[in-house]
Predict the 3D structure of the following.
Amino acid sequence: MLKANKPLIKLNNAAQWWNLKLEKEKILEMVIKEAHDIEFNLVEMRRHFHMHPETMYEEENTASYIENELKKIGFSPVRIAGTGITAILKGTKDGKTIGLRADMDALNITEKNDKLYISQIPGKMHACGHDAHMACLLGAARILWKYKEFLNGNIKFIFQPAEEGGAGAYKMINEGVLDDVDEIFGLHVWIPLESGEIGIRSGPVMASSDIFEIKIKGKGGHAAFPHLCIDPSAIVPEIYNALQKIISREIDPLETAVLSIPVFKGSNAHNIIPSRFTLKGTLRTLNSTVRDYIIKRMHEIVKGYAEAWRCKAELQFIEPSYPTVINDEDLTEKISEILAPLGPITSIPPSMGGEDFAFYQQKVSGVFLFLGIKNSEKGIIHPHHHPEFDIDESVLWKGVAIYSLLGFNKSFIT
Ligand code: NI
């Protein structure tokens, strides 16, 4: 719960102090101070979300909590895409509308931490840090509301459901979330980075993510009489190896692509040849031309092997697939400058992880950036999506400061 903290300075005094002219240093000083002032509340909110995780499109309690917090500040939150929420902050001067996005969903993982704030929902866990994103964006909403008279343009706070596979961003866009947004920013807490480091990269930063399924149909029967069957499992090793050869033999070694096929489903018994065999996997790339080529070759290979061995096969991709997260070059440069005083800023390598933030960037310019949360001394070292994943809460204030400065950015950079 947010407490009604005393403003750092009264607005009328602040206006005199700044002589109604915003200065970068003053904004920075104010944002850092305000973010530190609400650290206790940030931890409280993050732990509330952490203890009550909800997965894709079921974020009802999470959404209600966010709505309440926004209303307490003074916003009129609006529901979108089921459990998604937006809230608009109108500045007093004209300018662009900046979208600030936090994702809301948890994962189907059983938490194995021994912290007091461990998940209270069996089998579900905030193991990616989306609990922290929501807390930080609520913190920023509070700070930016307080200083709205200094904003040029508007800020749209976007709380998005179903990032983990449900393409919540895509659904929100279809329901008009970007209709009044000019630029968008997203933040992800990031375990590969040391606590407090800010990771930024221009261009492709997270991979496109396609989920696919290969269904091979043959003719089942007794395993002792394979000649009376058409065994679909017999061609699985060939298809598997051939698909890997697309990456190793047909893609430029300087390009990046990953094809993983971790799901094999065939017979349940040693003596039964199945009539169907299913493979499931994921394709990750940073370049759409490479992606298109691999998909074309996957279809040819699956069809070719199936026909050669009297089977029928179909390769299907689950839609919509997540595009590559591509950070706008100019905007990345601009925000690197804005955020530099909060640093250290690190130029990070691209990740083959996927992110549906990419859908927003297909419509408007945007940047997706990272905040380090790794702290070996506190034992916070486990990767995202791990049952022992945790975040270093001492950096929550910085997440708030990042969102706040991004919200302010047009006020002092243009
Ligand atoms: Ni995530």
Notes: The domain at 208-322 is CATH 3.30.70.360 (Alpha-Beta Plaits). Residues 288-308 form the longest helix (21 residues). The radius of gyration is 24 Å.
